Task: structure prediction
Amino acid sequence: MVQPITQKTFHETVYECTWQGKKLSFKTWKLAPHCDWAVEITMEWTTLLVTAVMEKKPDTNKGRFPLSIDYRESYYAAGKIWWWRYRKREWRPSDEAILYARLTDRPMRPMFPKWMVNDVIITISPLSLDQEHSPGELSIIGASLATSLAWIPFAWPIWWVRVWYKDGEFLVHMTESDSINASMDLHLAWPSWKINMVEAWWNETPIAIIKEWMRLWQEALEEIIVHQKKFLEQCSIQPKEITTNLPSEEFIDAMREIITPEMLMQLHGEQEKNQRETTYTWFEKLLHEALAEKLADDSLWRQAWHIRDWLFSLVKESIRKKTIHEGIRVDGRSLDQIRQIYCEIDTTKAAHGSGLFWRWDTQVLSLLTLWSPWDAELKDGMEHDQEATRWMHHYKMPPFSNNEAQMIRWTNRREVWHGRLAEKAFDAVLPNEEEFPYTMRVVSEVLWSWWSTSMASVCGTTLAFLAWWVPIKKPISGIAMWLMSDWDKQVILTDIMGTEDFTWDMDFKLAWTDEWMSAIQMDTKLTWVSVEKLEEMLDRSQAWRSAILAFMLQTIDTHRDTLHPDAPALLQFTVKPEEVRVVIGSWWSTIQEIIRQTDVKIDLEDTWKWVITAKNQEDAKQAYKLIMSTIWSPTPWEQLQWTITRVEKYWVFVDLWNKKTWLCHVKQLWAWFIEDVAALYKVWQTLTVEILNIDDQGKIQLKNVVETK
Result:
């Protein structure tokens, strides 16, 4: 006998509220209950499932905290099947998925305990997308809640807010359609009333408006903080035990005896990157050799894998002490001194523009390519439906730029992130499609990396634009600033170098014109940075940004007057809808023949606008002439120059229009009678004729007005 089936019971914790006029809910204990913790977060119709899992038996031979953010694209969330014809399963992550994952990683990472080596995997799975409420903000809030509820040690829950500035007012969490034409788009992470991460783009917004963020941030965050705390109070939270890789005091003391402060001074002074790396490698080798003899006890020698990590700490301590308390940086510069810069344009010939920006040991070559409007990138993903992007910036940092012996593989997450930062920085200054209809792509090749390559790519892109007459509204320069702090003192640096990279506490990148900012990106290794310190960095950055921009403009101070002759030529024109079929011809035969003859690209837009893209103006004009000839309508007394296709005794035939031939009688060829027309005229000669009359049947009577050539 079959036993009756009973319904499974479970206790689900649900919290629902209204935030900024939108329905927001947090749910747990229903979906994915086997992981350390899972949170289902919903705003209107956008729903994410965020899970957190921590490795219980970690590998202690690790130097950095192994946090991974996995944003899983799921096309069912948008009611779609992936567009590729031969593969319907989700494949490699899109740029948007990579950006969401990194956006979540940046505010989360500094909130975990130092020296923690337990792997933490946070997985973000979109279950439903309404195309109006971005999953980016919900990803960070969900990741913070899932980590806190999973009993994983975590400093504070992170709150998140997105702000737009449109039509003279600040707006919080608008829908994607309402945010069109906004002049500011700001993403902000904020733990415990202190700033943790900033990502923002502007369009001609003065700095005074930008500083007004603070008021709106606090108002919006105060509300969401209350809601999240109420949800956390409904769940019990107990911290998990974690594993750290902090070496013993005996091991640390042994290292300090070998690598003395005097030896560490060998890293200081004006040196190139390779010189410092050689010195650092020698330190590592010396430690391995000395510790092998000094730490005879096997239990101590098992900690030798700490050498590289703790050597970092010794170098960091030395650099920070001299920089913070003496105001002298590792290469001898003052805190606000910018290293030598070299700028160059037209470095290469094949690309449609190039700009080389070289700042000490950082070298970036930006190369511009222009082509037809129909070569715009089409975005068709979970959140996009055939959106065309006519401006693309791609950042490449191959291993050889760091003197690393590795093969070049797929584009990594860092390259996607830096490429998008520079791309957004130029959105505010690019010409509109009517003024400059080209599709534009810039590839910034990092050829030598010694930090701040993202801002160097911004500067190189400006040079490439100016060199090839891309009429940008204003040139842009990029600058990176850093905060270095001690218990009782904080200092601000600009133009950081690689040796200083692992010593900073906050990274602050800014892209500016001569009047306003176009992009900001802020990361921190601290759990928070004060609003006052952020405002100070904004104010101090203006002078440094102006100095870099002024130096760049010594190479080229404005875009050239005319487009370079090697740039592709564009011709745009419209025809009547009823004439389109005539231009195309049967089975596209007419237009394909024109393309074959002139070697051009011809596109037809929905507005009946034709775009001809050619390698030069002559080919574009020839293609235009052939297209217009297919839809030409004759009018009396019009003079035309056409080709003779056939010669008889008393007349010649000329190819006039739409593949039709018309005859010109001997009486209309010359002032007196000609015995034999073939004696004077040959096939393929050019004849200038005038239309005398067009009868009711469309028959044309022609007259020769100039002798044949």
